[in-house]
Amino acid sequence: MARNKRDIDKEAKRTEIVAAAHALFIQKGFDETTMGALATSVGVAPNTLYWYFANKDELLLAVLDSTLLSLHRDFMARQFSSFDEHLFWLYEQLLACNSLVTTVHARVIVSEPVAEWHTRFHHMLDAMFTWLLVQAGVAPAKVSGWLDVCTLTLEGLLSHRYEAARAQRALSALLTEIC
Amino acid sequence: MARNKRDIDKEAKRTEIVAAAHALFIQKGFDETTMGALATSVGVAPNTLYWYFANKDELLLAVLDSTLLSLHRDFMARQFSSFDEHLFWLYEQLLACNSLVTTVHARVIVSEPVAEWHTRFHHMLDAMFTWLLVQAGVAPAKVSGWLDVCTLTLEGLLSHRYEAARAQRALSALLTEIC
DNA sequence: ACCTGAACACCGTTCAAGT
DNA sequence: ACCTGAACACCGTTCAAGT
User: Which of A151, B3, B23, B66 has the most CB atoms lying inside 10 A of its own CB?
Assistant: First the structure.
């Protein structure tokens, strides 16, 4: 996309803003991060942010996309020996940005673009779980029934911030029963 | 609690406000319901609400409590022939106020009283599911492992507003495997 | 005791103006 | 093209004043 130096600079600035927003959204939360605070963290006037992003929700979408992209990158760079290891790794990764999960669910109701992103995200999760379950030897006919249980349990564990031990126990209960 | 006429009037007014807030929170959502809109809906000045409730979160807590109370009342007035029927009934009841579920999860992070209410609510759900699972003949040793899976799946189905058929399928997958 | 008008602090966003 | 100061609309909340 970025053709000339000007485009590259603009892209770099966008990336810088998204990085700062990512840090603040996770540290303070989306609602608690004001555009003013984000602006000072980047060293710019609040309204300057609106030259790069139409509004706060588009900024959220950019943060979500970049988070998912780096998650995917890390995933590809790893080898997993078992279904368990795979699932727990994913759990730990997502736990680091669990406040984003809650934020998405809150904004889905009021923002159409966020709702679309949320749908796409779940399609991705579904595809991943289907692959994992089939890989683990679950009969394809039974997969569809378990899909939502797996996804929702995982998401619930994140948004409720359960201690690692409890999350482990719940995921284990699921796994031993399915496989 | 209400001793004399004055207390009764005050309690009645509080109940009226809570009822109006309940309707608006469910119809429009918590964030999208301004104190001003709620005030006009009750026919009073916005700041009058602060004579009855310290802030918007306390109003939310009152709505949550009243919702839970009437749910409990309805529950007691019913007979359930099976675990399935019981669970689906609960699902349908909670679906009617699913936006409150999302709101609670969003406010838990920032409001201590809401966090306490949320903890109490999950204790209640845990107790209920334990009772149901034992009733259904699940070995007590296995109950604790399934508890969180049941709770989180139920909550996830609500907050994601899945169509009835899909929710039915997920809950059925859980039930047939557990029992 | 109960209610209100006016005001405050804050926040997302816009706009006209600068370079 | 990129950035800013000033302003706008809105919202939760407070406060002094009314009855």
Answer: A151
Q: Which residues of A touch B60 (CB under 8 A)?
A: none
Whether A137 and A171 share a structural domain: yes
* DSSP state at residue B163: -
Pick out the nucleotide with least CA–C1' distance to A58. C12
Looking at the structure, tell me whether residues A159 and A105 fall in a common domain: yes
Strand D nucleotides below 7 A of a protein CB?
A: 1-7, 10-16
Beta strands of A54-164 (E only): which ranges? Answer: none
The structure's pTM equals 0.92
Coil, helix or strand at residue A77:
coil
Query: B47 and B69, same structural domain?
Result: no
**Chain centre distance of CA A10:** 25
| Strand C neighbours among A 114-173, CB < 7 A | none
- Residues B81, B122 within the same domain: yes
Measuring CA to CA, how many Å separate A52 from each of A16, A59, A69, B14, B166?
A: 11, 9, 20, 46, 40
Residue A27 is part of which domain span?
1-53
